Each structure stands twice: as structure tokens, then as C-alpha cells.
Amino acid sequence: MQIDPSGNVWLTNNWQTVPLQSNPGGHELVVFVGLAAPVRAPLIGAPQRP
């Protein structure tokens, strides 16, 4: 899970119900637009409110 500076929440799905030996991970990406509050992405440390 990652929150971008606009407040969008990005999720990945790396799970498959029937994994293949050559590629056991999934290939899904989901974005929830405006679900979180906007944040200021710092170079060091935790995200902060703008």
C-alpha cells in the first residue's frame, strides 16, 4: 500500500489462487482516488500533512 501526495491510495495484489512455478506472483494494481488525506512526501522520515 502506498499513498501518493494527492491522497490516492495505491494497492498491489501479489497473490494468485493457483500460483505458477515460473511466476508465483499476481499482476493486479488498484488505485482508490482521493481515499486518504493529501500528504507531503519527505526525503527522510514519515509522511506529513501539508
Total strand count, please? 3
**Low-confidence segments:** none
Strand content: 15-25%
Largest sheet: 3 strands, antiparallel
Average pLDDT over all residues = 76
Q: Tell me the number of structural domains.
A: 1
Give the % helix.
under 10%
Write down the Rg. 15 Å
The largest sheet has its strands arranged as 1-2-3
Distance between the termini: 20 Å
Please specify the SSE layout and strand pairing.
Blueprint: E1 2-3, E2 9-13, E3 28-32
Antiparallel strand pairs: 1-2, 2-3
Search tags:
50 residues; three-stranded antiparallel beta sheet; 3 strands
Description:
- With 50 residues, the protein is mainly beta.
- It has one domain (1-16, 24-50).
- It is 0% helix and 24% strand.
- The protein is built from no helices and 3 strands.
- A 3-stranded antiparallel beta sheet has the order 1-2-3, with no helix packed on it.
- The model has no long low-confidence stretch (mean pLDDT 76).
